[in-house]
Amino acid sequence: MSPPTDTLPTMALNTSADAPLPVGEVSRLIGGWIDRLGAVWVEGQITQLSRRPGAGVVFLTLRDPSYDISVSVTCFRQVFDAIADVVTEGARVVVLAKPEWYAPRGQLSLRATEIRPVGIGELLVRLEQLKKSLGAEGLFAADRKKPLPFLPQLIGLVCGRASAAERDVLENARRRWPAVRFEVRNTAVQGVNAVTQVVAAVKELDALPEVDVIVVARGGGSVEDLLPFSDEQLVRAVAACRTPVVSAIGHEPDSPLLDLVADVRASTPTDAAKKIVPDVGEELERVQALRDRALRTVRGLLDREERGLAHALARPVMERPHRMVDERAAEVGALADRGRRVLRHLLDRADSELSHTRARVVALSPAATLERGYAVLQRADGTVVRAPGDVRAGDELRARVSGGEFAVRVAEAGE
Fold first, then answer.
1. I need a surface site. Which of 14, 37, 193, 198 has the fewest CB within 10 A?
2. Residues 255, 261, 266, 270, CA torsion sign
3. CA distance 215 to 206
């Protein structure tokens, strides 16, 4: 903090019209006096903001609406990045900065080392820090999201008593699916008791096994009004639920932390009703469309098979079924005739060969020799007499001739 101005030494300058100070000297003296100032906290409204890509310095213009005075502010990018998500042009901020004097232009500026949002901006900063902390724990991870049932039998609803959000969810859900049932828990949806009551209602509904999905609904409001739905206690309670949770807080631009941890985010309570139950009319149309599609498919299949059957019946083999048998019978007859001719030819050739062989055998047989007048002499034991010396006088022999055989006696043995 800079010291009070009455403690700063005064600059006594001896000047006159005849001995004035040059402008540069005055600027230098002002710069020296400003350099002795320490860092000061300055409050104002950001009217201009320049963040050049790749530049390490951010330029701002800070304005005091009461006096219509503006001053230039510079800071390193990392200083501004700490609040960049919640601070834009028009935001009110408090800046810790060191005054600097640029002598060549005679211009005063501030070198900021810390920037803090004021009011709603400060609140958004805290929410952003909580968001990053919970996100780092994995509470917002997509793989933790549970799918909604197609047709829940019982829906748990946490909302304000007799609120527009309750009416929107109930009426739109029942209009879409008249048989839907609700288990409603009315709680405070803003104020100091909202977080405690909403957390208790969510845990109570999650403990009921017949509840298939839980909807937390609230209409629109300011950031402060919706603050309970960014409370860390509620976020952790929803993350621990076994039942799928739908967040339907505020309007489309509103984004409390409950939207990030819930399994499904609905932009409005009416949108939540559309997400949790199907539309009976649309489902009937879908069923009818599927029936028509199935009927067209079956008819197409039958038509294709009928055309295939007609094509098959139009083939000659189907018009005259016995034609194939007749053709095969003719082939069998032709093969049988051929077999007979071949067998007959083989038999004729074998008969001819047999006749020739028989003629050769007959011509070479002993019977043919006997027919020419020869005889064969055999002893009583059947041996053939081949030489005169083989017999003696008085031996009984048998003579075999062409017409038979007879007995003979050796009258005289030969030599």
1. 14
2. negative
3. 11
Closest CA to 114 of 151, 73, 142: 73
The band of 12, judged by pLDDT with boundaries at 50, 70 and 90, is low
Rounded to an integer, what distance in angstroms lies between the CA atom of residue 72 and that of residue 99? 10
Residue 251 near residue 220 (C-beta atoms within 8 A)? yes
In this structure, what token pair is assigned to residue 84? Answer: 């960049």
How many of the other CB atoms lie within 10 Å of CB of 112? 22
Closest CA to 100 of 112, 109, 91, 87: 109
Taking the model in full, what pTM does it have? 0.50
Distance CA 319, CA 331 (A): 21
Distance CA 160, CA 219 (A): 9
Among candidate residues 198, 247, 255, the one with its CA nearest the CA of residue 223: 255
Within 13 Å, how many C-alpha atoms sit on residue 404's CB side? 2
Any long-range contacts for 135-140 (C-beta under 8 Å, 24+ apart)? 135/260, 139/235, 139/236, 139/239, 139/260, 139/261, 140/260, 140/261
Percentage of the chain modeled with pLDDT above 90 = 40
Query: Which among 219, 228, 245, 230 has a CA at the least distance from the CA of 156?
Result: 245
Contact status, residue 273 vs residue 237, Cβ threshold 8 Å: no
Output the DSSP codes for 364-392.
Answer: HSHHHHHHTT--EEE-TTSPBP-SGGG--
Mean pLDDT over all residues of the chain? Answer: 85
385 contact partners, CB below 8 Å, separation of at least 6: 377, 378, 379, 391, 397
| Helix H or strand E encompassing 120 | helix 120-136
Q: How far apart are CA 216 and CA 231, in angstroms?
A: 14
CA distance 32 to 275: 67
Whether the predicted pLDDT of 5 surpasses 50? no
57: tokens are 């310095």
| Helix boundaries (H) for 231-315 | 232-239, 257-261, 269-276, 280-313
Query: Which long-range contacts does 187-191 make (Cβ < 8 Å, 24+ apart)?
Result: 187/158, 187/159, 187/160, 188/160, 189/159, 189/160, 189/163, 189/165, 189/218, 189/228, 190/218, 190/221, 190/225, 190/226, 190/227, 190/228, 191/228
The H or E element spanning position 143 is none
How many C-beta neighbours within 10 Å does residue 407 have? 9
DSSP 8-state assignment for residue 252: T
C-alpha to C-alpha distance for 210 and 204, rounded to whole angstroms: 12
